[in-house]
Amino acid sequence: MTRKERAAEVCKILNSEYGTNLKCYLEYDPKKPWQLLFATILSAQCTDERVNIVTRDLFKKYPELKDVAEADTEEFEKDIFSIGFYRNKAKNIIACANVLLRDFDGEVPSDIDELTSLPGVGRKTANVIRGNIFKIDSIVVDTHVKRVSNLLGLTKLDDPVKIEFDLMKVVPKEQWTLYNHQIIAHGRKICVARRPKCDECALREVCVHASKKVI
C-alpha cells in the first residue's frame, strides 16, 4: 500500500468514525476572527481547555480589537498568566492587534504570507485561521497531527513545516482541514500519547505502528 492509498483509507475511516462536520476546539465569536487568531497564539504548548477558560474572561475584558491593541502589557500578562509563555504571548498578541488595525483595517487576512507576517503567527496558526475562518483547505500540524500521522505511516518527518507539505502530497485536498480536527479527536480519545489504544482503534488495519504490535 502506498502512502497515498493509506491516506485515502485513513480518511475514509476517520469520516466514518468522527463524521465530516468541522469542530473547532477553541472558543471564539465567529463575527470576530481575531479572537480565534489570538486564541490559537495562546494555544501553543497549552491545552485548548486551558485557553478556553482564559479567553472566556479575556474577550469580555477586551471585547474589541482596539481594546487589545491598547492593553497594558503587564496587565495583559496577568490576564493570561495561567498559560505557558504568557509574557511572550502577551507581547505578540498586543503587537498583532496593532498591526491588524494599522495595516489591515482591523481585518484578519486570508493570505498565508500576510498571516505569517503578523507577530506571533507561524504556519500552524495561519492554517488554523485559513481552514476555520476562510474555509481554505489547510493542514495544521499540531502535536496530535505530528504524532498520529507518523504512527500511521503517512510521514516519517519530524519538522512541522515539512510534515505539513508531506501530508499535502498524500491526504486528499478536500480532506485537509477536516483531517486536522479528526486526528485531534482521535489523538485525544484513542491514539493517546503515552499508551495508544491500538486494540480499540478503527485505524489499526491501515496503521504501520499497529501492524508491528500483537493485538
Description of the structure:
The chain has helices spanning 3-18, 33-42, 48-61, 65-69, 73-79, 86-103, 112-116, 123-132, 143-152, 160-170, 176-189, 208-211. By secondary structure, it is mainly α. The chain has two domains: 3-22 and 139-211, Helix-hairpin-Helix base-excision DNA repair enzymes (C-terminal) (Endonuclease Iii, domain 2), CATH 1.10.1670; 33-132, Orthogonal Bundle (Endonuclease III, domain 1), CATH 1.10.340.30. Helix 9 (143-152) crosses helix 11. The mean pLDDT is 95.
Layout of strands and helices, then pairs:
Layout: H1 3-18, H2 33-42, H3 48-61, H4 65-69, H5 73-79, H6 86-103, H7 112-116, H8 123-132, H9 143-152, H10 160-170, H11 176-189, H12 208-211
Helix pairs in contact: 1-11, 2-6, 2-8, 5-6, 9-11
pLDDT average, as an integer? Answer: 95
Q: What is the CATH superfamily classification of the largest domain?
A: Hypothetical protein, domain 2
Shape: elongated
Helix-and-strand structural type: mainly alpha
The share of residues in extended strands comes to under 5%
Strand-and-helix sequence, N→C?
HHHHHHHHHHHH
Radius of gyration over C-alpha positions, nearest whole angstrom: 18 Å
Query: Which CATH C-level class of the largest domain is it?
Result: Mainly Alpha
Looking at the structure, the CATH topology of the largest domain is: Endonuclease III, domain 1
Largest sheet: none
Could you write a compact summary of the structure shown?
This protein has 12 helices and no strands. It is mostly helical.
